[in-house]
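May I ask for a protein sequence together with how it folds?
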Amino acid sequence: MQIMCFLIGILSATSYNIRISSTQSYVPDERKGRFNGAFLMLNTIGMLIGELTAGLLSEVVPLRLLLTCYMGLCVVAAVFLIGGNRKHVSLIYNREV
């Protein structure tokens, strides 16, 4: 669990600047506000759903197992979404300005 906490934390922190600068250079100036609003709204909704389901499951599942499963789900989702869509993602991140 500590290893997953560390990995998710370090990968989130290091990828944040790359993700923001890449998407900001990709999105036209007149749509950056809408893009950031939609991105943050989806992010917040995902966190709220995760917190709600984790709270409900914590009544029947041990916390360490629950956190390990949720962190594992985050790692699998990142690998699947980024790795599985490498062709489309590379167009955003490997764009020359």
